[in-house]
């Protein structure tokens, strides 16, 4: 790790102010990606602005059908939240299967989606749940937020404060973990809204990050059952291929995981 | 057996300090004035070094020195060697390429050390290392063994044309060919044994301390064999003469073979300490470990197994190409030859065997012995072929094996080994009973009803431990003897120190070696200390690898105990005015049989040291040493049965049960033996299902250089193992011990692959059997 300057932000405003002060300053949330990257000297921020002590970015509230999760909320807190379990159990399941216990107790939802790793779990959940990403300056729909592999709609110095989700009628997540990293080799989140509309989001498989699977959404909108997906064929031409899996295998997993997610949604 | 004697399930004495963080490892060592090293390493797999400019680095904060290969050569530090000479079948010696501790003219793999930076802090050394400018002329690289042998492949060492190190054979080719020609059935296969990264928990480290006043060197290092390290550094690398070099391997956190070898970093740290005048510490990070620890396996083989009409094996022909990486590591040449091809008879009576082995250079990190070393490769090949042959012949895998088992001992195989004892059918029957093999069909049908594919597979392995005797291995090309030494010191108060040339880096010697003393004298193991890992304390030893510490190291202890006991009896007899032959030693007392006379152990010891009342002519003191050179290898063997369930939608394999029935001969501590089997089987499952080192074939970059990409087995990948033992005593050592350290890793991969291929109905499956590979094999089977 190269030397860096550590700052502890006390508020959202303080954090934004601090990050604008450094040449190459970065926000630090759970640090589960940034710190290993720094240790390998692949990232060298001049300053780190620690967000973990900003009260306004922490905590979970469920108000009617709206779930609000502070950006600095850890995966373990989401996984173990009785309120979320009642409103959106698929999200608890997702959070409970991120990484390992260490990662889940350090990593945060805001950090995960700001990084938008193409194999991270949360992007699939938030895209399928049509979440709203609340920043210090605006609200961004998930469809607009996830713009590509490791890329988001966030502007320079813009800070995610919270994520808001309207509780779906049903939702489920199924993940086939990469056996080494335990990121998603392919993960599919399926959410059915009260109006019967369905969103299906896929992580781990896309060559440009998380994406929605339109054919599956249509099939499930008319029949929300695993067998409704039998006729859907997944094109592997836009899917990722690497030492861990071919695009053809990922295409298979997209379908298998989608069916399992639907089954899990009940 | 007493409470703590041979066979007792004693908890490990050393575990308290390990699990409370009180172990003392090389990186815990601090020398006054110590500074820190970082190595400049090649980012290229193959390149000529045009020049090294360290001017900027030398001016950086905290930097004490930047030293490169030319300076090392100017001080006449020698090149790294391979210590086992193999001759090709044409009689020519192996083509050993020059391996400089710091590369001078050429780098040959990503991670090859080019220079060392010594600075006040680790971070400063690393910063400065980045500022060392090495001018590389990048050359084409080759990483696969087959590609390296092709015409026009990049030439890695000038003295190894076509990258061929040796072309060696064993056995009778003509007889084997004739057997195949006359066979009723021949099973043919191509077998790939995947390349593995050892990954001990503790990365390698070295602390070199040069004492100018004494002109003396001390090296703290992560070694499985500190005496061998001293010997090699003194005799070949010209670092220091043996009497001026102390090597200490303190607590070492696992080795699995990768810490047998003498690597460039230890040599360079010692040399750099003299050069700079400060103690030099280097500690490897995990990425460096992936890049520079010797890897394991990496064989490509074809095999033909010939059967007569009654399903008896009449011939076995094997052709193997083994990748040895960019340089020949210390014992690399022996692994695919004498540790591999000599085991190709397996547990079977095979009249004719021929194996041809070619080893090649590639632009990858050196490959050497890794838990099992040659025997996993032999076992995997044989047991995959046996299972395949059973399927082709339409007989049960167990029947085919039973038809061919060796049943009379000693048994001379056509490939050097003379098996001394065993009962292979006993292990097979035990494993089949525990696994409820007979009930498999019902379980398979039940799984089918849930949409899952069940399979069962077995592996009947044999291996060779305690490689010996020294004269024999010497005649086969080994540069060292393979005996072991021990010294037993009884202190004046009766406590006992056992000095051993074996080295414990996870094996539990502090407990098991003490159990030998408890068994002999009836003293508590708490009064016995095991001393190892320091060339100033233990006179000489050959270290721990190849599951040799029980069979060879403990045997040396037994011999020394014999001498101590003999003298103790004399002293006790003298003290009690009894006949020596009437002395019985039990529960820490020396008694006169049939009387109530006794002398406590400590009192006898005190008498030895006060020397006030010893038998006439007896020397004072009670300390004896012994060397033990076994008459033969030992041959652990057993049967492993694995049952799996495959999810046909994803190809994911779940191991339902794993049964191990091993014959390790006499067992000193069953709990430690079970632990060894558990660990070995976990590593074998890792190889079979999860682990593989991937190099980019074009650039030679290691793609699996962290745990993000290299899959180590974890608890949730593994079932609870069902392990048991049968026992036939080894006749070649006084305890009847065989060796248990590697069996799990040797026997398990074929059992698992045989089970998966049984489940999916497609035999074309390569390790590691990842979910994708299983899924693809299932699809192509349809």
What do these coordinates show?
The complex is a heterodimer of chains A (266) and B (782). Chain A has eleven helices and 14 strands. By secondary structure, chain A is an alpha+beta fold. Chain A folds into three domains: 46 residues, Uridine Diphospho-n-acetylenolpyruvylglucosamine Reductase, domain 2; 112 residues, Uridine Diphospho-n-acetylenolpyruvylglucosamine Reductase, domain 3 (2-Layer Sandwich), CATH 3.30.465.10; 96 residues, Enolase-like, domain 1 (2-Layer Sandwich), CATH 3.30.390.50. Chain A is globular and about 55 Å long. The mean pLDDT of chain A is 97. In chain B, helix 16 crosses helix 17. By secondary structure, chain B is an alpha+beta fold. In chain B, the strands form seven sheets. In chain B, strands 3-5-1-12-9-10-11 form a seven-stranded mixed sheet, with helices on both faces. Chain B has a five-stranded mixed sheet with strand order 7-15-14-13-8, sandwiched between helices. A four-stranded mixed sheet of chain B has the order 18-26-27-28, with helices on both faces.
What is the compact description of this entry?
With 266 residues, chain A is α+β, with helices and mostly antiparallel strands. Chain A contains 11 helices and 14 strands. The longest helix of chain B is centred in the last third of the chain and has 27 residues, at 549-575.
Helix/strand-derived category of chain A reads: alpha+beta
Unreliable residue stretches of chain A: none
Strand proportion of chain A, as a percent range, falls in 15-25%
The CATH first-level class of the largest domain in chain B comes to Alpha Beta
Largest sheet of chain A: 5 strands, antiparallel
Largest interface: A-B, 17 and 25 residues
As a whole number of angstroms, the C-alpha radius of gyration of chain A is 18 Å
Tell me the CATH architecture of the largest domain in chain A: 2-Layer Sandwich
- Oligomeric state of the chains present here: heterodimer
